[in-house]
Amino acid sequence: MVRIPAEVPKKVHMIAACGTGMGALALLFREMGVQVSGSDVQAYPPMGDLLRKAGVELSLGYGPENLPKDTDFVVVGNAVSKDNPEVEEMLERGLPYGSFPESLAHFFLNSRCPIVVAGTHGKTTSTALLAWLLECSGEQPGFLVGGEPTNFGSSSRLGKGKYFVIEGDEYDSAFFDKGPKFLHYRPGVALFTSLEFDHADIYPDLDSIREQFLRFVALMPPEGLVMVCNEYPDAVEIARKADCTVETYGYGKDADWVGVLEEPPGVCGSLEISFRGRSVGTVPLPLSGRHNGLNVLGSLGLLSHLGFGLEGLKSCVERFEGVRRRQEIAGEVNGILLMDDFAHHPTAVRETLAGVRRRYPGRRIVAVFEPRTNTSRRNVFQTHYAEAFSLADVAMCAPVYRPETVAPGERFDPGVWVEDLQKLGRVACCFDAPGDMEKALTETCRSGDVVLFMSSGSFADLFERLKVNLGRMDRG
Fold it and tell me: Distance between alpha carbon 212 and the CA centroid of its chain, in Å?
């Protein structure tokens, strides 16, 4: 049996369809005119809504009956094991199948120039920004982002131009392919944003992650480019192994592309940029935070190397609206600003909170955290999370998501997190049930607060319920 057919299939079924990457791939198939069905255990916004709107037939839960009889190709998500009932049905019927990254590469990246964004932090925002800047330049790029770029209203698009911008994830591909996704993407140009330990469920240490990034840069063609952030020395050392041009960017004067960040209180600020000692202008920043300044700097440096003039890109940067669930302002109720953010790694938490504090000076910040990702549910960053959340005035922690899937000795402990934050002089609490957190938030929040939700999931719709509760009460 040929596992992946040469021709584009007519009917695709996707197992674990509502993940950010899988959902984006489903949208690409739909744009190509392919009929798509899918299944998952949850279908919360924004991906569930996007898929239904695109005409994807979604089933909640897994079962052999979910695979339509006329299915001629199956995409298997990396969250799915071999004993999944739909996988068993797929194998029993002898259906062709592939992982998400190899299916993307096989059906969508031929004859394109892939721009792959890799790194521990900043991938989603940088991928969306690069796609937007290319769009503003008339390039009509294809893209696949692990989120929903607000400027496009979709997490993926085929595009008609030369470039295809991809968020390159170092997480594994499928139960039958334990290599990182980004090894499938045939990079022509790469943006390497950062390197830290992450994905504690599959990587035992930082060295094992370094090895995967070494494999990634080894894929670069001699005529390619790696644009790497020199705020992360490990990333620079790895990038230098590539057999292509390497340029660095960062806030230090030893970088090729140097940014000087200006962040007056209450505004997003601007970035003065120079290249190897020569000033190339100042760019207004569309998003707050030191990390977003780096995202802009790396993206502009990469596009400059490809021949795009920075002067023409300035207004495009200013019109970039970001990505849903990345410092997304989701409403204001009785003077309480509600913000949604995906941040889960302690570095991302710290940078996000620092940016929010500068953007909203004088306002009390209430950070609401759900340990939900495979890394955040583990205690590998137990103390680091307390240090990161100490930038908030009030910190609240939801129960660990699916705690039974993590060994007790390896599990993140919200109680210890609270104790560590209290030692740092912060108000902190944790809860055994979402309802208890809802009650505490309703009683705690007051006019002027910024409430920042940090979760990779839906928070059991806590956000929407809180909006209703706050709207009913006098918060003076």
Answer: 19
Q: 305, 311, 299, 238: which is closest to 276 by C-alpha?
A: 305
Please give the domain boundaries of the chain with CATH numbers for all domains: 11-98 (3.40.50.720), 109-318 (3.40.1190.10), 328-472 (3.90.190.20)
Q: Which residues pair with 333 in a beta bridge?
A: 336
- C-beta separation of 442 from 473 below 8 A: yes
Element (H, E) at 16: none
| CA-closest candidate to residue 378, choices 342, 418, 345 | 345
> CA angle 121-125-126, nearest 5°?
85
Confidence of residue 460 (pLDDT cuts 50, 70, 90): low
Q: What is the pLDDT of residues 316-372, one digit of tens each?
A: 998 998 787 777 777 788 888 888 887 778 888 888 898 888 888 889 999 999 988
For residue 2, give every residue at least 6 positions away whose Cβ sits within 8 Å of its Cβ, in sequence order, or none.
96
Place of tokens 């071999």: 82
User: Are 193 and 145 spatial neighbours (Cβ–Cβ below 8 Å)?
Assistant: no
Tokens 């940088």: give the residue: 126
Full-model pTM: 0.85
Place of tokens 């960017």: 249
Closest CA to 443 of 464, 472, 414, 418: 472
- The count of other CB atoms within 10 Å of the CB of residue 56 is 23
